[in-house]
Write a structure and sequence with these properties.
- The chain has 244 residues and is an alpha+beta fold.
- It has a single domain, classed as Ribosomal Protein S5, domain 2, CATH 3.30.230.70.
- Helix content is 28%, strand content 29%.
- It contains four helices and nine strands.
- Strands 1-2-3-5-4 form a five-stranded mixed β-sheet.
- Helix 1 links the parallel strand 4 and strand 5.
- Helix 1 crosses helix 2 and helix 2 packs parallel to helix 4.
- The longest helix has 27 residues.
- It starts with 16 loop residues before the first strand and ends in a 6-residue tail after the last helix.
């Protein structure tokens, strides 16, 4: 028998979602994204120039970095000063692939947009919150480039958002918090576009295997939750930009 969820939410419900734009005064785009008690600050910096392998093409680039602040969890974790560890590399590559799915090409001139996702507080779903918040920050960064005359129009074609789903004691659940995540027999992260198409699906049988029916149920649950996230992104971006 599955245990009741924190706050009494039903298995298909996300935690309370918050997207606060312009959360950093100096970044060209920024968003503080909260999924329940998980909080991730996503900033986008626009820099002149591109990596060496893209120079001379007239194309830009989007890249991402991810970090967990030392007291984002119950105990202090050491900063990764020299080289990101395996989990960090995996997550920042996922974020990079996800935000690059927002555009169809890189023909916005030789600019690099660097997305930084810093976990301020972790209670499960940090990578999915990072992607969801980063998408909003990227939209604002490109709009800033238009306003300042660097580009004529934003190349953004779609937003992206992400959610975690999993199976606990045979029960599918969405948006797992930490207590649920560590118990999940199946753990999955799903990234989708605002057009309703999949960007990436990462699914693992942590303590067993899962069947096609369970996979379909998890994907359906994730798809419904991401529609909720997309609506929150749309509402945040339609609102007046608050001052930092």
């Amino acid at each position: 028998m599955a245990e009741p969820r924190t706050g009494g939410r039903v298995v298909s419900a996300t935690r309370p979602i918050s997207l606060v734009r312009n959360a950093s005064r100096y970044a060209e785009g920024s968003c503080l994204c909260s999924f329940g008690e998980t909080r991730v600050l996503c900033t986008v910096s626009v820099e002149d120039g591109v990596p060496g392998w893209k120079k001379g093409r007239g194309e830009g680039w989007l890249t991402a970095e991810y970090a967990m602040l030392p007291r984002a969890t119950h105990t202090r974790s050491a900063r990764e000063r020299d080289k990101p560890q395996g989990r960090t590399q995996e997550i920042q590559r996922l974020i990079g692939r996800s935000v690059r799915a927002m555009i169809d090409g890189f023909d916005f001139g030789e600019y690099t947009l660097k997305v930084d996702c810093d976990v301020m507080q972790a209670d499960g779903g940090t990578r999915t919150a990072a992607i969801t918040g980063a998408s909003v920050a990227v939209v604002d960064a490109f709009d800033w480039m238009v306003r300042t005359g660097r580009i004529k129009q934003s190349p953004v074609k779609r937003r992206v958002a992400a959610i975690s789903v999993g199976i606990i004691d045979g029960e599918p659940r969405v948006d797992l918090d930490y207590a649920e995540d560590v118990r999940a027999g199946v753990d999955m992260n799903v990234v989708m576009s605002s057009e309703g198409r999949f960007v990436e699906v990462q699914g693992t049988g942590e303590h067993g295997t899962f069947g096609r029916g369970e996979l379909d149920a998890l994907l359906s649950m994730a798809e419904a939750a991401i529609r909720t996230l997309d609506a929150a992104q749309h509402a945040a971006l339609a609102a007046a930009v608050p001052t930092a």
